[in-house]
Amino acid sequence: MKRLASAIIAVVCALPFALVIMLSLAHGWRFPAILPHPFTAELWRSIVTGRVDLGAVFARSAALSATVALLSTAASFITAKFIAYHRRRPLLLTLAYAPYVMSPVILGVCILYLYIRAGIDGTFAGVVLAQTIFAFSFGIVFFTAFWNREKLELEQLVYTMGGTTRQLYSRVLLPLSRDALILCFFQTFLISWFQYGITLLIGEGKVQTLPLKVFDYIGEANPGYAALSSCLLVIPPVVMLWINKRLLPRIL
Amino acid sequence: MTTSAVRSYRSSAGTLGFALFLAIAVVPIAASLLYALLYTLGLTGLLSNGFTLTTWSRVVTSRETWAAFGISAYVSAVVCALSTFGGLGVALFLRSAGVPPAIAARPRAATVLGRIVRARGRKGHSVEIVPPGEDARRLQAGRLHSRAIAFLYLPLALPMTVGAFAGYQILSPIGLFARIAARIHLIGGAQEFPAFTNDVLHLGVIAVHVLLALPFFALLFLQLCESERVDAYAALSRSLGATDRQTLLRVTLPILLHRTRVNVLLLFVIVLGSYEIPLLLGRQYPMMVSVLTVTKYQRFDLLQKPEAFAIAILYTIVSGAAIVIALRQRQEETA
């Protein structure tokens, strides 16, 4: 019984992944067949042959997410320190939490006007900036726990021993925070990688990323290519999860 | 706060942190919400004709608005309940299935189960006399359930977009479940399959959200069992004469549920504003809040635009209040 329950947990968790992989390898899936027939790698080959632009979209999504992750990790590392030791920490943390938890697409509706006025709507930079708001917010929440009393005392110790600010960061704080920085980078990369609504609104459909492609193909009633885009979309998170399994439990 | 702490945040890094906070998070959002508010009051935008409450009276008296908030609240509440209690059930099952706490807390340790057991013995922390065959049996069970735990991590890597697409391919009348039902002759055709997508009860939306959230809660509960020393309290409770049922209901569950209430509240806010899943699996009426907001914003009828802003502001107020409550509770916990 316990074996069966464990197997059910495993199957339910793996089913969405198995399904999108299966559909990306399907030539047709006529009702009521449970499995598609025949299986073919034709859709995957179309990426290599350039029949679809998914390779370029994958590269654009990766570049966009890496930029967002880099900016938001660096900025939130600094800002979280400011908030963590501030006497109005609860208020500032509440402000920081808002974009992290609230719906990006609803805030996106309101923010779009600013981007139109700034002339960066429908551009790569505009989407990067818009996504950075949400990833930055996550970074602050993430790093606020890092900047604790222990780090403060270490900082005091370095200054007491005559160390400079540069030495404090290069020899103490950055080595100490290496794991946290890597983890935050991965997480903010994923926040950006998963983002659909804000990319659609701010990018105005001109900045094509993989989540947009999934919905485009669904709209075109093309489940094969939607599944293929979905596979490309889940590859980096799964790889990161695998690389990151040592670090991940700490954020839970 | 200490003097040095004050000096620390007032340092150049502190100023930079403050500037970044204002520039990236506070100002864009505050400015855009202010613009949205002014737009709804007729004080700015293309339709601006001076101060008016017309938009607000239209939105507040609109059946569509309250239906959207109602269905969103219903979906969020059901998702929170199922994810929390489902996650709790999975976590307690995995612990009862013979998984040592260290394994449960860190799934990566699954492959080194044997070594953990032996290392404990050598260090003298916990010397167990394992009968012949028992070690292998426990090892087998441990591996099996640890694999189940490892699988719980998979949905954390699933974007909502893919979750929505996979949910549609599984639950729709031509999806996987319908095909299985047809194959075992439970239904005669796709039209006989019950509606789990685009249905009144939003069952498909709920199912996909639960699939994404339940594993997170299961892992969270597993870790809390370890960090909150639930086993120690449960053992104490039993040694004082409590039954297993009393221990579960009066010790284990209250500890775990109390510690996760903030996460549940945050999940409520996240589901309340979710977009991709209801966009694909939801209905035209009632729409969930995010879908309604974007739909109104993108309509050709310009009169709908201020209504989209008004709904966005209402959502901001509701979710903002939830965030404040959640953070207050967290502060009480850490105080």
Write down the overall mean pLDDT of chain B: 82
Query: Which regions of chain B are unreliable across 5 or more consecutive residues at pLDDT < 50?
Result: 100-140
Taken as a percent bin, the fraction of beta residues of chain B is: under 5%
| Beta-strand residue percentage of chain A | under 5%
Please mark out the parts of chain A with pLDDT under 50 across 5 or more consecutive residues, or reply none: none
In quaternary terms, these chains amount to: heterodimer
Which series of helices and strands of chain A comes N to C? HHHHHHHHHHH
Query: Helical segment tally of chain A?
Result: 11
What structural class is derived from the secondary structure elements of chain B?
A: mainly alpha
Mean pLDDT of chain A: 90
- Which sheet architecture does the biggest sheet of chain A show? none
What's the main sheet of chain B like? Answer: none
Outline type of chain A: globular
**Structural class label of chain A:** mainly alpha
Helix content of chain A: over 70%
Shape of chain B: globular
What distance separates the N and C termini of chain B? Answer: 15 Å
Whole-angstrom Rg of chain B: 26 Å
Distance between the termini of chain A: 29 Å
Q: Could you characterize what this model shows?
A:
The complex is a heterodimer of chains A (252) and B (335). Chain A has eleven helices and no strands. The relative contact order of chain A is 0.14. The longest helix of chain A has 31 residues, at 54-84. With 252 residues, chain A is mostly helical. Chain A is globular and about 75 Å long. Chain B is mainly α and 335 residues long. Chain B is built from 15 helices and no strands. Chain B has helices at 3-10, 12-40, 54-60, 63-96, 101-105, 113-123, 134-152, 160-171, 176-183, 203-227, 230-239, 244-272, 276-281, 289-298, 304-334. The longest helix of chain B has 34 residues, at 63-96. The radius of gyration of chain B is 26 Å and the shape is globular. Mean pLDDT of chain B is 82; it is low at 100-140. The interface between A and B is large, with 87 and 97 residues.
